[in-house]
Specification:
Elements lengths: L4 E8 L3 H10 L25 E4 L2 E2 L7 H16 L3 H9 L1 H7 L5 E3 L2 H14 L11 E9 L4 E5 L8 E8 L4 E6 L4 E4 L6 E5 L5 E6 L5 E8 L5 H22 L1
Antiparallel strand pairs: 1-10, 2-5, 3-4, 5-12, 6-11, 7-12, 8-9, 8-11
Helix pairs in contact: 2-3, 2-4
Length: 251
């Protein structure tokens, strides 16, 4: 299998603030399937090991997107075929709300407590202020995969014009990121170096397998209107070097 992921070289965060936040909020991580006001609640009776701590909340005054509508219709059709009438009706009765929830760009509400952790992240990814809609950070959250836990293979609802970004915060060499097509399966370890990873999650199934005795934590979010991570990473570096040179010129 050709390497299914990309990693940034220049875009990189300091891990210490997020490690501190994880330490402070360890007991506030929750099973996403437990939320009765989310479409994910249809999976409440299925095995759940992944836990979330949201840094942003959904703004339900916003609009849905075609990808979200397509995704929720797909899930409804699956539940109907499986004979899960209760789940199907739950999705049908809340269709408009869940379509809004499935547009990751609507996850933009931030409280004061989390703003200090996200400000530097926003500035880093939106370094080019001439391109207002590019690099906006949406649906930022911390994700815990307990020791021995599995995040089964899946695809996400991220729109093809956006990128799903992963930054391991606490991990080890026994945590494997799996990628699977109909023909192949491959595993990779993503170390906690502050770098960001992405992959074509709408084209390939992915999962995470924690074979260690340590909980794995990662920062996961979506960035808008970026279709080439390597190019954006290079532009970030060029922008950084320009301002360093400019500062030296006026010092």
């Amino acid at each position: 299998m050709k390497k299914p992921y990309e990693r940034t070289w220049h875009l990189k965060i300091k891990l210490a603030p997020f490690k501190y936040l994880i330490h402070q909020k360890k007991h506030e991580f929750f099973c996403p399937f437990s939320k009765t006001d989310s479409y994910l609640n249809i999976y409440k009776d299925r095995e759940c090991e992944v836990q979330f701590y949201n840094l942003q909340q959904c703004d339900y005054t916003k609009d849905p997107n075609p990808e979200g509508e397509k995704y929720i219709r797909y899930v409804m059709s699956v539940e109907k075929k499986l004979g899960n009438t209760e789940s199907y009706n739950f999705l049908k009765d809340n269709y408009e709300k869940f379509c809004i929830e499935l547009n990751e760009e609507n996850w933009s509400l931030i409280d004061d407590e989390h703003l200090k952790y996200l400000t530097s992240l926003f500035a880093m990814w939106q370094f080019d202020h001439s391109q207002i809609n590019k690099g906006q950070v949406r649906r930022a959250r911390l994700v815990r995969l307990p020791a021995g836990g599995i995040m089964p293979y899946h695809r996400d609802e991220t729109a093809s014009k956006n990128l799903r970004i992963i930054c391991p915060i606490i991990t080890n060499e026994l945590v494997k990121n799996g990628f699977r097509t109909k023909e192949e399966e491959a595993f990779y370890n993503f170390p906690a170096t502050g770098h960001f990873y992405t992959y074509a999650e709408h084209k390939i199934e992915h999962g995470v397998f924690n074979e260690s005795h340590q909980d794995r934590y990662a920062l996961i979010f979506t960035v808008t209107n970026i279709d080439n991570l390597k190019e954006w990473d290079r532009e970030y570096y060029k922008n950084k070097m320009y301002w360093k040179a400019w500062a030296r010129g006026i010092s």
